[in-house]
């Protein structure tokens, strides 16, 4: 262990372990002659240290059989801390080109993850939860107190993205193309929010008009979408897309133009299917904020996740 004389000048990126805390036992067994006189302790800050939560999860799993109540208490700490840290951003009210007004709402900055089994986690530290079908994605969102992103909400964000200069590779709306996130198979799998591609056009974030950044709205993994336009009460497509449907009319450019994604599908009747949008790490030229696909709602695979929303 390193010896540090002035704790106020410590650069923790350049040192390893050092004496930072004074620990005493409530039972006094660390006193001279006690059973734990020479024991050493490692203290975790569970409030602001993002590395502490994974450590607690691992410890809870390790002690589960020998100390089940301790494991339960640790998991409760993890659950409370993670939920409090779920990262949502505000999306302003947006009017779509066909006149549909989408009220302001909150959306996860990242895809939903699962730091601990059965718990929705929304932050950069964890990879998106995949291998989950549409129905289970809706259920997981609801159990966490959120909703699965809807079609009109998705369209509102995508439309908002196309209107911001910062989201274009040329620095101005209409110049270059809209950034498309991880789509060139450089990542070889779903990534957490800290991964950065060496490909400049695979920038992962888009900015909204209020300055908020949303990550992986195009690329990394697809997202399940609750269809509140053509869908039934469960958000499953129930009829053919009308020519004036916002699903058809919102994209400001033709399919695959300016990096908006492949919007060529949508003809015919997709009744009984569920919407997926956004593209994944290997979608190539098909990826984009408006990409439009459909699959059976019981489909689960490593390239489809989900994004949560909540009311203001």
Written account of the structure:
The protein is α+β, with helices and mostly antiparallel strands. It folds into two domains: 7-85, no CATH class; 86-312, paralog of FGE (formylglycine-generating enzyme) (Alpha-Beta Complex). It is 18% helix and 12% strand. The chain contains five helices and twelve strands. It has helices spanning 52-63, 68-85, 134-143, 151-162, 246-249; strands at 88-91, 94-95, 101-102, 105-108, 147-148, 205-207, 213-215, 222-225, 274-277, 292-295, 304-306, 308-310. The strands form four sheets. Strands 1-4-12-5 form a four-stranded antiparallel β-sheet. The chain has a four-stranded mixed β-sheet with strand order 10-9-8-11, with no helix packed on it. A hairpin with a 5-residue loop joins strand 6 (205-207) and strand 7. Helix 1 (52-63) packs antiparallel against helix 2 (68-85). The protein is elongated. The protein starts with 51 loop residues before the first helix and ends with a strand. The model has no long low-confidence stretch (mean pLDDT 91).
Give the distance, in angstroms, between the N- and C-terminal Cα atoms. 48 Å
Class by SSE composition: alpha+beta
CATH top level of the largest domain is: Alpha Beta
Relative helix content: 10-25%
The major β-sheet equals:
4 strands, antiparallel
The tally of helices reads 5
What CATH architecture label of the largest domain applies? Alpha-Beta Complex
One letter per element, helices H and strands E, the order comes to HHEEEEHEHEEEHEEEE
Number of strands: 12
């Amino acid at each position: 262990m390193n010896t540090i004389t002035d704790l106020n000048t410590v650069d923790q990126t350049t040192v390893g372990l050092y004496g930072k805390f004074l620990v005493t036992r409530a039972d006094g067994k660390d006193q001279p002659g006690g059973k734990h006189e020479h024991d050493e302790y490692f203290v975790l800050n569970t409030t602001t240290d993002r590395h502490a939560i994974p450590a607690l999860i691992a410890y809870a799993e390790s002690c589960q059989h020998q100390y089940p109540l301790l494991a339960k208490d640790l998991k409760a700490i993890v659950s409370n801390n993670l939920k409090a840290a779920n990262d949502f951003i505000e999306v302003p009210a947006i009017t779509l080109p066909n006149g549909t007004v989408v009220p302001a709402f909150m959306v996860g900055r990242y895809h939903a993850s699962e730091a601990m089994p059965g718990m929705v986690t929304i932050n950069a530290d964890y990879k998106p939860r995949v291998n989950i079908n549409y129905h289970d994605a809706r259920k997981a969102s609801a159990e966490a107190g959120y909703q699965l992103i809807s079609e009109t909400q998705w369209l509102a964000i995508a439309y908002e993205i196309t209107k911001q200069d910062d989201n274009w590779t040329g620095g101005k709306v209409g110049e270059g193309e809209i950034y498309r996130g991880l789509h060139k198979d450089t990542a070889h799998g779903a990534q957490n929010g800290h991964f950065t591609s060496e490909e400049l056009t695979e920038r992962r974030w888009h900015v909204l008009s209020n300055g908020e950044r949303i990550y992986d709205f195009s690329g990394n993994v697809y997202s399940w979408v609750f269809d509140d336009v053509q869908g039934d009460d469960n958000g499953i497509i129930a009829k053919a897309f009308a020519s004036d449907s916002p699903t058809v009319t919102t994209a400001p450019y033709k399919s695959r133009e300016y990096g908006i994604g492949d919007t060529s599908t949508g003809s015919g009747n997709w009744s009984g299917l569920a919407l997926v949008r956004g593209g994944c790490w290997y979608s190539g030229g098909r990826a984009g904020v408006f990409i439009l696909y459909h699959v059976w709602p019981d489909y689960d695979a490593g390239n489809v996740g989900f994004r949560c929303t909540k009311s203001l």
